[in-house]
Amino acid sequence: MSPMNDEALLRYSRQIMLDAIDIEGQERLLAGHALVVGAGGLGSPVALYLAAAGMGRLTLADDDEVELSNLQRQIAHGMADIGRPKAESARDAGLALNPDCEIRALTSRLDGEALRAAVAQADVVLDCTDRFSSRYAVNEACRHAGVPLVSGAAIRFSGQLAVFDPRDPQSPCYACLYPPGEGGDEELRCAENGVVAPLVGLIGCFQALEAIKLVSGAGSVHRGLSTFDGLTGQWRHFKVPRDPECPVCHG
Length: 251
Hints:
The protein is α/β, with parallel strands linked by helices. Helix 7 links the parallel strand 4 (124-127) and strand 5 (149-155). The chain is built from ten helices and eight strands. Helix 4 (43-53) packs across helix 10 (197-216) and helix 6 (112-120) crosses helix 7. The chain is globular, with a radius of gyration of 17 Å. The N and C termini lie far apart (38 Å). It has a single domain (6-238), classed as Rossmann fold (3-Layer(aba) Sandwich).
């Protein structure tokens, strides 16, 4: 993304006037790079808000294509995008908001060495996937590279938010929270269980907020696990200690 000129100062003026961000924080955002794994329900608001807020580089990874049933909640895509790769559709939606944002679309499955390389190049990673296998892989890559991970999940009327920062020696990782083999049914996904449309937007927006804080230096990073019950409108917060026997943290 180009340096701050008069147009950029105007575009980001509502963030720059915030003491917690100011010019320095906005410049850090403009120089920042976020990797978003998943361009569906969670990844849509994440990609749009990070692009709009001035995250300099976005890498959007998703090997799926847009389907009609996605449009109920995946707001980065429209009717004209049906059949297109989600990563490319979300890229175009982000560029429509902010053409100065550098957005790269990865349309093949991101795993193994490719995942580790992509994570190592990012300042923050946002896990917007809906499979335990993907979450464990992203978590391990982030832990290995020392890159903070913002994790979100949404199903039915329930949402979850957590931030795992390997730079903090007290911070747990995703495997501390959900030890491998104890994470539950991997197929507990929107396609089989449903999800109310605004829930993914709510959780995705919180993920974007945490990423902005991490990169700009504003505020305090979210700690522990927060869960949201959409039927009652209640949030609950849980402390999550680092597991001394975690195979990822101590492997």
